[in-house]
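User: Please fill in residues for this 262-position structure.
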């Protein structure tokens, strides 16, 4: 994989030429900024900004004003190669709060190895309806604790809406140990691009280290390749990055969400 060409393709297809990811949101392109604005349940934020040291502060202030007027918390998704070089400090000075940094990793879908065999008693269940979404939310809580239950429910609402609005653009799956959901994951397909995004995959503590996460990656990679997507993209946490590295994913850059709450 050519790092520079792949990163340029990602920036062009997934950021500058981005499409909205729900029926209730829209992409706006104003003064070099590409941003998504939607309902309170949608992802709201800045995807791309063609700015420099002379224009950055004014552009940041405009985004704060517009999203605040809409009553929306929003995210400025900052990539490590974005400019100006001190953009992170400017965002903090404007009132943004940084979430943990993640690593943007990419692999060619048809080059990934087959997943390991699932542990005995574990099966993969495709998520296609409200009951499957409920199981995904339970898997999220099992993986991250009751403190993250609200986030799991919010993700579940998002998945349910995607299944209703554009079922061909999302693949969701939950790993079941008997009647217990122990891992949930999804893949968001972006028509007109080469990229499919992998999300989720957190596993209940007692089931970690047994190949479930890798099996879910392989499951989604096979579907992405069958549907003609060249690349799989992951915003990887520190926990998943070593696993993805061993599977053949390459690091493109790091990304940090800067969140502004009106």
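Assistant: Residues filled in for all 262 positions:
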């Amino acid at each position: 994989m050519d790092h520079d060409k792949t990163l340029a393709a990602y920036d062009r297809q997934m950021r500058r030429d981005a499409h909205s990811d729900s029926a209730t949101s829209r992409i706006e392109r104003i003064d070099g900024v590409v941003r998504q604005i939607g309902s309170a349940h949608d992802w709201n934020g800045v995807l791309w900004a063609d700015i420099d040291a002379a224009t950055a502060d004014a552009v940041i202030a405009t985004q704060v004003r517009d999203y605040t007027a809409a009553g929306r918390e929003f995210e400025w998704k900052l990539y490590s190669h974005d400019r100006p070089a001190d953009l992170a400090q400017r965002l903090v000075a404007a009132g943004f709060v940084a979430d943990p940094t993640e690593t943007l990793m990419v692999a060619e879908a048809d080059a990934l190895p087959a997943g390991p065999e699932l542990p005995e008693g574990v099966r993969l269940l495709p998520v296609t309806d409200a009951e499957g979404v409920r199981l995904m939310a339970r898997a999220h809580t099992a993986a991250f604790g009751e403190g993250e239950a609200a986030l799991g429910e919010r993700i579940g609402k998002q998945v349910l809406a995607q299944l209703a609005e554009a079922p061909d653009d999302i693949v969701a799956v939950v790993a079941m140990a008997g009647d217990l959901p122990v891992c949930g994951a999804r893949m968001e397909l972006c028509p007109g691009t080469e990229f499919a995004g992998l999300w989720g995959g957190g596993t209940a503590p007692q089931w970690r280290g047994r190949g479930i996460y890798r099996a879910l990656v392989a499951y989604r990679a096979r579907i992405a390749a069958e549907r003609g997507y060249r690349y799989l993209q992951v915003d990887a946490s520190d926990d998943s990055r070593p696993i993805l590295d061993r599977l053949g994913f390459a690091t493109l850059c790091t990304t940090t969400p800067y969140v502004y709450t009106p």
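For context: The radius of gyration is 18 Å.
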